[in-house]
Amino acid sequence: MKSLKIIFLVVLFQTNIFSQQPAKREMRAAWISTVDNIDWPSKPGLSDKEMKTEMITILDNLRSYNLNTVVFQIRPTADAYYKSTKEPASHWITGKQGVAPGFDPLQLMIDEAGKRGMSVHVWLNPYRVQKDTTNEVLSKNHLFFKKPELFLTYGKTRYFNPGYKETRDFVASVVGEIVRNYNIQAIHMDDYFYPYKIAGQEFPDQAAFAKEPRQFKDKDDWRRDNVDLIIKQIRDTIITNKPDVEFGISPFGVWRNIAKDSQGSNTVAGATNYDDLYANILKWQKENWIDYVTPQLYWHIGFDRANFEVLAKWWAAHKYGANVYIGHGVYKLSKTAKEVEWRSPDQIVKQIEMIRTMPMIDGSMHFTATNFLKKGDTLRKPLMEKQYKYIALTPEANRITRVKPQPPVNASIAQKGGTAVLTWKAGVNNQKYVIYRFPKSKITDFSNPENIYYVTTATKLEVPNANLQQYTYAITALSNTQTESSPIQF
C-alpha cells in the first residue's frame, strides 16, 4: 500500500509540473558584503558571540523575505573569511589581518543558511589586495612580502598584477582550496577585474606586458586575454575539484555601448566591461566558462543613459545558455534619493515584475543584505504581498550535470501538544529538503509554490499550531545541483 502511495505522488508530481502557477523556481539572492564592513560584521573587533548574532539576524531577516540564496563575500582583498592555508584572516573581522575569530565564518554561514533553506554562493575578488595603501594592514606572512614582484599599486589600491601566469595560478589555487573544503553552491565574482580607470593615470602593467606578451602587440587585447585566462583556469579548477559547483559572474551592467559595437546595448554608459574593465563577459558565456551571469543593473526604469528595461532585455537576448539573474540596486532606495524613482520601493517591485515577463531571465540578486534589514516593512510589505509571497526554490544551472537525489527515507509525523514534529532520514544525494503542506487528503500540485511550507538542511521540523486533521504533509529532497527528488508522504 505504501508503494502505491509513492507511485501516486510521483505521477501527481510529474503531471502538475507544467501547470500555470507562480514560479516555483526563481533566484532570490542578496549579496552579503564584507569589504569595509558594509554588511557583516558591522565593525571589526566584535566578540564571537556578537558576530554570530549579527549573522543570524541577517539570515533570519532575509528568510523573512522568502529569499533563497546568499552571496557571501569571503575574499574581499586577498584575505579570508574562512580557514585558509594560503591567505590571512581579514582585518575586517578582528581588526588585525592574520588574527582569526574563534569560529569559521564561512562554515557558520553555510550551516545557518542551510537550516533556513538558503544556498550559499561565495564571492571572491580575484586581483584586489589592499583597498587603501595609506593604511598599512597587511600581515607579515602575506604573499605580498614573499613575492612583491606579483603586485602593483594603482591609485591608493594594491592589486595582483593580472599579466603574470603566477597570479592566475595562485588565485586558481585559492578557489580550489575553497571548493574542496566547503559545501557551497557556487563561486562568484563581481565587476572588479581590471580596476575602473583613474583619469590621467595609466595602469602600471608595462613591465608585465614586456615580460609575458604572449602573441599580443595591443595591450588592451592582452589585458582582455589575461582576464579570459584566469576565468578559464578557475572554471577548470572547479570542474577538477567538484564539478557540481557553479561559477557565476556579476559584471558591470553594460558590456559595450552600441556606439562602440553594433552588438552592444543602446546605452551611453561612461564605463563598460569590455573597454574599461577588460572583461569580455559574452566570450565567457559563449565558451561555457561560466554558469550564470548577474549584470548589475543599478539604474531605474527609464534612465536615459542606461535604461533598466533596455539592459534587462539585452542581457536576456545574450544568454548563450548561461542562467541570467538581474542585479538590483536596493541600496539606492531612500526617501531623499536624488533621483525621484528611488524614493519608493515601487522601483524594485516594478523591476521584478518586468523581468518576470522575460522568460530568459531566471531571477534576481539584490545589493545588499543589510538594506533589507534597514528598510524593514517599508520594503518587506510590498514584496511579500505579491512578488515574494511564496517560497521559491533556486534554479538549476543549465550547464551543470544534474545529480538526481533519492527521496528521503523513514518520514514520520507525530503530534506533541499543538506541535507537529516531522522527522526523516537522508537518502542518496540529499542536500536540502522541501516540505509541502496540503489540505487534508487533497495532495494537489507540487509545482505550485503556494504548497511549499519550508526548505531546510535539517532532518527534523517542528510545525507549531499544527492540526493534523486539517493538513497533509509531503517531502522531497534536493541534491547539490538543486535537482528535486520524487515526493513521499508523511
UniProtKB/TrEMBL annotation:
* Record bears the keyword Nucleotide-binding: no
Q: Which residues form the Glycosyl hydrolase-like domain?
A: 26-337
Keyword Signal attributed: yes
One Pfam family hit: GHL10
Keywords, A to Z, come to: Signal
Name recorded for this polypeptide: Family 10 glycosylhydrolase
Entry's transmembrane regions:
none
High-level lineage: Bacteria, Pseudomonadati, Bacteroidota, Flavobacteriia, Flavobacteriales
Q: Which domain of life is it from?
A: Bacteria
